[in-house]
């Protein structure tokens, strides 16, 4: 057992919820890309409810938008961890950051493809 593990039961759930909200707040305040994706979701999710598609298609349209937020949170976490280790330029640090960026690029392409396939 890790000495850093804390509470159990409901207390753990309340603590975890607080940590999650702290993470969302940190991403929104500190990451312009996250704010841009939130704006994209604010636009696209309501549109998903306005277009005439099946429930399953609507769920997919919304899910790919939310996936972009998830990937950006992971990307930001990787960048923060790399920067915490060292601000020196290193090929492995560059690779880690570039791969996080590439993951986000793939998700943005997925949004375009999924929305295109479903709506066209």
Itemize the secondary structure elements and their pairings.
Elements: H1 9-30, H2 32-50, H3 55-85, H4 91-119
Could you characterize the architecture of this molecule?
The protein is mainly α. It has one domain: Helix Hairpins, CATH 1.10.287. The protein is built from four helices and no strands. Helix 2 packs antiparallel against helix 3. It starts with 8 loop residues before the first helix and ends with a helix. The model has no long low-confidence stretch (mean pLDDT 95).
Order of SSEs, N→C? HHHH
Global mean pLDDT = 95
CATH uppermost class: Mainly Alpha
Q: How many runs of DSSP E, i.e. beta strands?
A: 0
Helical residues, percent = over 70%
Task: Examine the secondary-structure arrangement and name the CATH architecture.
Answer: Orthogonal Bundle
Fill in the keyword field for this structure.
120 residues; mainly alpha; Helix Hairpins; 4 helices; globular
Task: Please provide a brief summary of the model.
With 120 residues, this protein is an all-alpha fold. It has helices at 9-30, 32-50, 55-85, 91-119. Helix content is 84%, strand content 0%.
């Amino acid at each position: 057992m890790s000495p850093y593990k804390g509470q159990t039961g409901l207390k753990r759930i309340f603590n975890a919820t607080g940590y999650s909200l702290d993470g969302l707040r940190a991403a929104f305040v500190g990451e312009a890309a996250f704010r841009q994706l939130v704006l994209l979701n604010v636009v696209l999710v309501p549109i998903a409810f306005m277009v005439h598609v099946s429930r399953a298609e609507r769920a997919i349209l919304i899910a790919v938008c939310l996936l972009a937020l998830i990937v950006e949170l992971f990307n930001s976490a990787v960048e923060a961890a790399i920067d915490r280790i060292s601000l020196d330029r290193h090929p492995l640090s560059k690779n880690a950051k570039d791969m996080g960026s590439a993951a986000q690029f793939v998700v943005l392409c997925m949004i375009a493809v999924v929305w295109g396939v479903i709506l066209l």
